[in-house]
Here is the input.
Amino acid sequence: MAGNSNLHMSKAQKEDEFYTELSMIEKELRFYKQHFENKTVFCNCDDPEWSNFWKYFELKFDELKLKKLISTHFDASESTYKLELFKDTNGDGVINSKDIVKTPLNANGDFRSPECLEILDDCDIVVTNPPFSLFREYITTLVEHNKDFIIIGNLNNITYNEMMPLIKEQKVWAGKNSGHYWFRVPEWYEEKKTDFKIDENGVKWRRMGNICWFTNMDIPEHYEDLTLYATYSPEEYPKCLNIDAIFVRLVDKIPMDYNGLMAVPITILPKLNPKQFELVGFDKELTENHGRVRTLQPNGKEKTEYARLIIRRKP
Ligand SMILES: C[S@@+](CC[C@H](N)C(=O)[O-])C[C@H]1O[C@@H](n2cnc3c(N)ncnc32)[C@H](O)[C@@H]1O
Here is the structure.
C-alpha cells in the first residue's frame, strides 16, 4: 500500500490504490454478523499489513466465530505472500495478531492467478474493496466460483453488460450503505483540485461518489420497503423517448400509484426491496446506451439523461 513504489504501475493501477476506512467497513458488516460463524473469509485484494478489512476480521475473529482468515497481497512487479489466522498458534489463550502465519506466494497475488483462485475455491466468503479498473472481471470471477461476497464498488458498474444480468437475476444486489466516501491514498498520489485533501497528519485522502457495497448474502434489511409518497401525473412524469417507461427524476419522487415501467436513478439500488419492485433489465437499445434514457425537454429538444434503472412496482 502506501509504502509501495509506483514505478511499475500503469495509470489505471495507480487510480486503483485507495484504502477503505475501518468505520466504513464496520457500518456495513454489522448487518451480516450472523453469516460468519465457522466460515473462512478471504480478502484477496488486500495488503494484509495495511488493510482495514484484515484488521476488522482480525479484531473480530472470536466475536464472529470465524474458522479462518486469509489475505493475499498484490504487487504489480514481484511475487508476494499471504497471511493466515486460524488458531492460537502461540498458546496464549487468544487468537490475535500474534498468531498470524505468513507464507510466500509463487506469483504476485493477482486475484486471477492459479494459487489465488485455489484459495478462493477453498474459502466461504470474500470481503474486500477490489481494484475498480478490474471490477467487472472481479465480480464475474466471484459469481463463477460460486462464492458469497461483500465488496465495495461503484454503482455505475451496474449499467454494463456483465453486471445488469447479474443484478436482474438477483445473483448480486447492493448492500445497505452508499454515497460519497473519503478513502486514504498513498503518499505518491497526485494532488487534485477537487475531492482531495491532506489532513493534519499529512495523510492524503480522495473522495469518491456513487460508492456502494455489492453482495449476494441475504439479510433481513434487504427487504425493507421504500416509503413512497409522491403521486403520479402525466405532466410531472413524462414518458421516455427510447423506452415505454415514465421518467422519474429523483428516488424520492417514485410515485406510489403508478403500475407501469419507471426509469429511476441508479441510486435506488441500495434501497431496492425485490419484494416491492421488480427490476426489469434493459432492452437492446438501453443496454447499448448503458441505461441512458432520452427525454423531451419543455423547449422541444431531446436530452440524454444520466443512467437509469427500469423498475416496476410489484402488486
Ligand atoms: C481499491 S484498492 C483497496 C485496497 C484494500 N482492499 C482496501 O480496501 O483498503 C484495490 C487494491 O487491489 C489491488 N489490486 C490491483 N490489481 C489487483 C489484482 N489483479 N489482484 C489483486 N489485487 C489487486 C491494488 O493494489 C489495491 O491495493
